[in-house]
Amino acid sequence: MPPADEQNLLRAITLALQAERDGNLPVGAVLSIGGCARAEGRSSIWAPRFDVTRHAEMEALRAAPANAWAQAAIVTMYTTLEPCLMCLGAILLYPISRVVFGSADDYGGAGRLREHLPPYFRQRFAALEWLGPVMPAACDPLRQRLREIETGRVAAHARG
Prior knowledge:
- The protein is α/β, with parallel strands linked by helices and about 160 residues long.
- Helix content is about 40%, strand content about 20%.
- The protein has helices spanning about 5-20, 55-65, 85-95, 120-125, 135-160, and strands at about 30-35, 35-40, 75-80, 100-105, 130.
- It has a 5-stranded mixed beta sheet.
- The radius of gyration is 15 Å and the shape is globular.
């Protein structure tokens, strides 16, 4: 793995741990331009207020400087977890050239939907470099804790 990829993914892991300490899911993301981190995000769906669109990837996209998109050919999204369908849609609509994720997500990851996307999104996906899992030893425990947290919250909600 190139040093910039490792460095940015390690930063995403730090953000995931911070999100978890804040009472959110342990997912972090970094957006880089030419290997240099320019924006970051962490899961914030439960705190400070409930908002299901505040995934780490979406937060990094929101935090990106406006001039980032003029350099689409060198924009990479690093995330600790394979992006979900919502985040994949946003990634495909933004001119991002690479996605590097630490842990595969067989439960909610959107990568396997490639062949089922509408033509426009399928073309965008084909132009995207989709790399992962690249750090499963470090990121799989985060994914496991995410599933445990989600399972606990769903059970608590069902109990009322």
